[in-house]
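Late entry, evening session. Most of the bench is empty. Finally got around to the prediction I had been postponing all week. Sequence below, unchanged from the version circulated by S.P.
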Amino acid sequence: MYFNSDKKYYVQVSVIIPAYNEEKFIGSVLGSVPRGYETIVVNDGSTDKTEQIAKRFTNVRVISHPKKLGKGAALKTGIKNSTSDVLVFIDGDGQFDSSEIPRLVDLIQKKDVSLVLGFRDFSMIPLRRRITNELSRFAIWLITNKKFRDPLIGFRAVSKNCIRQIELKRNDFGTETEMLIKFKKIGCRIEEIPVSVNYNSNKSYFGILDGVKLVCFLFRMFLSNLFGWYFLKIKSMRS
């Protein structure tokens, strides 16, 4: 639970942490989550001790997939099982500081924002991730006519009322990008805020193959969006 001092009421917050083989870092991530939040770890078929470590935290709900279904599937499981007004997504690999969660929640409440994206210092990010991010930024700009600093980031906060208005279809790493595009399409207000990053933590949930799939997905979406709009325009002109 989070008290909004400006609006003088309490806001329920759920922190959703997708995790796959994060035994080295899940404990520190959970240890830094501010008290009073509903915290849900979705263990995506880990083969290490991620589940056991998360269960040591008595205030944490642990939901386990029997096998790895993908980051998107883990996020959707967390959304389905959350009970709060505001949802915060943060990766379980230790690259983000979970003590910064209130900064994102503040923007949701003070500015009536529907989606808050963190953005990283890109000098701290490995080259292949920077390349994937730049290609994704370009593709998302083509689709939404809006440039986002860090559209792939796994640290974000959303209004549950807004997320109910969209359908997330993907189960892989593309779910976060799908969420961003669909929020923009339905007119939800989106803000960005700088967040700290630690890339010395762990291998990412995001692999090279994920990057290739994501960029291909975005450009397919762009073409679909372009030609869908074109044929819709022609049809409306003829009617």
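Two things to note before I forget:
The two ends are 53 Å apart (CA to CA).
Residues 2-238 form a domain with the Spore Coat Polysaccharide Biosynthesis Protein SpsA; Chain A fold (CATH 3.90.550.10).
Will write this up properly tomorrow.
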